[in-house]
Amino acid sequence: KAMETSTKSLISIEKSKTSKIDKVDFDNLAFGSVFTDHMLVCDYKNGAWENPKIVPYGPITLDPSAKIFHYGQSIFEGMKAYKDIEEAIWLFRPLDNHKRLNISAKRMAIPEIPENYFMEGLSALITLDEKWIPKKAGSSLYIRPFIFASGQGFHASPANEYKFMICLAPSGSYFSGKVKVLIEETYSRSANGGVGYAKAGGNYAGQFYPTQLAIEKGYNQVIWTDDNTHEYIEEAGAMNIFIRINDTLITGPTSDRILDGITRKSIIEIAKDENIKVEVRKITVTEVVEAAKNGSLKEMFGAGTAAVISPISTFGHKGTDYDLPELQESYATRLKNRITDIQYNRAEDKFGWRYKL
Ligand code: PLP
Ligand code: COI
Predict the structure, then answer these.
(1) Which residue(s) pair with 83 in the sheet?
(2) Which of 185, 231, 314, 329 is the most interior residue, by most CB within 10 Å?
(3) Measured CA distances, 310 to 71, 178, 186, 301, 342 (Å)
C-alpha cells in the first residue's frame, strides 16, 4: 500500500489549458508527425533521476554546449498503445522496451532509468492523453521514450545531466504500400564492438545518406549486410528482416550489430506456434539471390514496432532487381494478423505479452 501511494505521487501533472485534438484528421494519419497535448520530462541531476513531470507538449530549452548536440549521447525506444473495441488501452511487452532502453543507456554511458519512472511515466501520460489513441484499424498511438545528454561542456566525456522524455504521436502505417529494398554492399550500419544493438540516435543518422542514395535509385529502404564481408543479411533501417525459402522462415541471429527487435522475437514465437518451420541462422546474400533465381524464395518481410510486418515486393542486388511472388496465403499476412490480434485485444494472448494500462 505504501509503495502504491509513493508511485502514484511520483509524477506531477501540469495540464494543458487547450487541446489540439480537434485539429487532427484521425482518418488520414501519417507516421509520427502530430503530437498529443502533453509530454513527460524527467531530469537527471546530481547523480539521480528526479522530478518526473507531465507538462503541455512544446519546445524545450537547452544550452548550446549540451553534449547531445556535440557528441550525440542520445537513445530512444519505439512502442505503441492500442485501443480495443471496448476502449480498453493496451501496450505490447513494455517491460522489454524498458530493458532495452537501459541496454542502450549502458552502451552510450547514459544513466539507466528506473523501471517505475518508465512504467509510471508511460501510464500517467497515456492515460491523460488517451483520447488521442486512434480507433481506426491499423492506426495506433506511437510512443517515443528517449534520453539525451542535456549537461553542458565541450569536454568529450559523458554529460552529468540528462533528460528522459516521452512523447506520443497518433500514427498510421509507416510505409504506404509494398517496400522495395536495396541490398547494401558499400556502406555499413554497424560493426562488431560498435553500437548497432543500441537504439542510439546516431545509428539512424548514419543510415540517412546511404538510404538517400538508394531512394534516388527507386528503392524505399536499404537492407544492411555485415560490415566485414557484405555477404550476410542483417536488418533494414528500422526493421528486422525475415526471409521465407520454400516453407521455412529464416531470420539472422542478433549480435553486436543488430537491434534485438521485440517484434522479431514475437514473430519467431508466433511462427513456431503456427507450426511454421523457423530457422534463426546467418543467411547469405548469395543464398537469397540463388533462391530468387530458382523460385524457392517465397517472401521477404520487415518486422518492427513502427513497420509492424511490411512485405517486401522487390529487392535489388548488384544492379538487378528481383521481384517476390504474389502469394495467396503469405506468412506475412498470417503472422501480421496473429500479432495485431494480440496487440489490439482481438484474440487470446497465450504468450502473456499484452499489458493492460
Ligand atoms: N531494427 C532497427 C534498426 C530498429 O530501429 C527497429 C525498430 O525499433 C527494429 C529493428 C525493430 O525493433 P522492434 O520490433 O523492437 O520495434
Ligand atoms: C520503431 O519501430 O519503433 C522504430 O524505432 C522505427 C523508427 C526508427 C521510426
Answers:
(1) 89
(2) 314
(3) 33, 7, 24, 5, 18
| One-letter-per-residue 3-state SS of 129-174 | CHHHCCCCCCCEEEEEEEEEECCCCCCCCCCCCEEEEEEEEEECCC
Distance set, CA 131 to CA 44, 125, 185 (Å):
30, 11, 45
- Rounded to two decimals, the pTM is 0.96
Cell numbers for 150: 542535456
Answer yes or no: is the ipTM higher than 0.90. yes
Backbone angles phi, psi at 140, to 5 degrees: -160, 175
Over the Cα atoms of the chain, what is R_g? Answer: 21
201 lines ligand 2 (CB under 6 A): no
Question: Is there an atom of ligand 2 within 6 Å of 78 CB?
Answer: yes
**Integer Cα distance of 188 and 190 in angstroms:** 6
Residue 262 CA, closest ligand 1 atom number: 15
The pLDDT score that the predictor gives to residue 237 is 85
Gap from CA of 46 to ligand 2 centroid (Å): 31
Residue 42 and residue 51 in contact, taking contact as beta carbons nearer than 8 Å? yes
| 291: enclosing H helix or E strand | helix 285-294
Q: If you count them, how many residues does the chain have?
A: 357
- For residue 286, give the amino acid letter: T
Encode pLDDT of 262-303 as tens digits: 999 999 999 999 999 999 999 999 999 999 999 999 999 999
